Amino acid sequence: MAKERKSDLIRSIKNKGKNVEAEMSFFDHLSALRIHLVRSSIVIVLMTIVCFVYYDFLFDTIIMGPHKPTFWTYRMMCRIGEYFHMGPGFCITNIPGKIINTEMAGQFTLQINSALMTGLALGFPYLIWEIWRFVKPALKDSEKKSATGFVFYASLLFLIGLLFGYFIVAPLSVNFLSNYSISPDIENTITIDSYFSSVATLTLCTGAVFELPIVIFILSKLGIMTPAFMKDKRRYAVIIILVIAAVVTPTPDIPTMLTVSFPLFVLYEVSILVSSKVQKNKLKAEKEFFKN
């Protein structure tokens, strides 16, 4: 009886030691993650300071760009309309609506918020790199090899999404909403906060949506997503993509929705290919494992 009690005591001490070791390991991981997040925050803050210092260029050229008739997108539309003889309606030469500030600290708050959001967008690749550095040691060699280029592709897709959102989605939405009127007696007078939030949301949301192949890659690695499932649910994906396009572009006109939804359809098909490649590599690894 005494021996049984002694063995139970020893077993409980060992289990307690394992629990303490697991807890220490958990807190060590939290500490390591905190270091990576702190470094990312420092880079984002530095980017924000640079944007704050050079705010004249940021505001006049970048933020207010979609509200100017000389914006690149509008000039290209005029050239395309002239080349294909699409009529003067396709060429945008005027963006109506006066932009005003209605708050005492509105312009100062705008400078802070816009510099911060731009700094976050510029620091996103470094944030992804730090997260990758945190996750990488826990991966197997085969997983590290298959995930090669993760930071590059994630940053590239985000950049393409930003450019698409800024040069396509944002100007089309700004033009439509600025020209939309239910009565000639109502004049569009837009607050600067409303204008900036619209442009920033459209641009950043489009950049996030373009990360779809990366998300599918991770879900496929975890076994949550499969190419067969994505192919089977393609018709539902079409509806979801159209809904996302309707949300991202607050304009009810069909051309704008199709312009936004087309790259999303392409991204979905690319995601199916990514998921197929992941599944193929899994099956190959399983065959090699059972052979050995």
The assigned structural class equals: mainly alpha
Overall number of strands: 2
Order of helices and strands: HHHEHHHEHHHHH
Please compute the radius of gyration using only Cα atoms: 26 Å
Biggest beta-sheet profile: 2 strands, parallel
Indicate how many domains the architecture comprises: 1
The dominant shape is globular
Assess the beta-strand content as a share of residues: under 5%
Number of helices: 11
What number is the mean pLDDT? Answer: 83
Distance between the termini: 47 Å
Concise description?
The protein is mostly helical.
What would your notes on this structure say?
Residues 16-24 have low confidence and may be disordered. The protein starts with a helix and ends with a helix. The radius of gyration is 26 Å and the shape is globular. The chain is mainly alpha-helical. Helix 6 (150-179) runs antiparallel to helix 7 (192-209). The protein contains 11 helices and 2 strands; from the N terminus they run αααβαααβααααα. The chain has one domain (2-210). This is Sec-independent protein translocase protein TatC. Pfam families: TatC. InterPro entries: TatC. Keywords: Cell membrane, Membrane, Protein transport, Translocation, Transmembrane, Transmembrane helix, Transport. It is found in: Cell membrane; Membrane.
Descriptive keywords:
mainly alpha; two-stranded parallel ribbon; TatC; transmembrane helix; membrane; globular; 292 residues
